[in-house]
């Protein structure tokens, strides 16, 4: 069994309508497994799990992690 850290969260705040947050799977084949669409001002709190190894964000958003804050440049 993998040693996955379930304490890692990210917070995504949409800076425009229609920001997409896409969860990507773990394993040999990385695939999309979940998509959320956020409206301006909405916030999503996401946790990395046994199934989610990465998150892709489309649109203008602020992403907050334990490593810092990142604003998309779109």
Automatic annotation (TrEMBL):
SUPFAM superfamilies: TRAP-like. Residues 6-73 form the Tryptophan RNA-binding attenuator protein domain. It holds the Pfam family TrpBP. Keywords: RNA-binding, Transcription, Transcription regulation. This is Transcription attenuation protein MtrB. Oligomer of 11 identical subunits arranged in doughnut-like structure. Belongs to the MtrB family. It comes from Paenibacillus sediminis.
């Amino acid at each position: 069994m993998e040693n996955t850290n379930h304490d890692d969260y990210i917070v995504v705040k949409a800076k425009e309508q229609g920001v997409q947050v896409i969860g990507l799977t773990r394993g040999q084949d990385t695939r999309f497994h979940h998509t959320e669409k956020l409206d301006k001002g909405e916030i999503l709190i996401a946790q990395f799990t046994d199934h989610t190894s990465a998150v892709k964000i489309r649109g203008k958003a602020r992403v907050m992690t334990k490593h810092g804050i990142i604003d998309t440049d779109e």
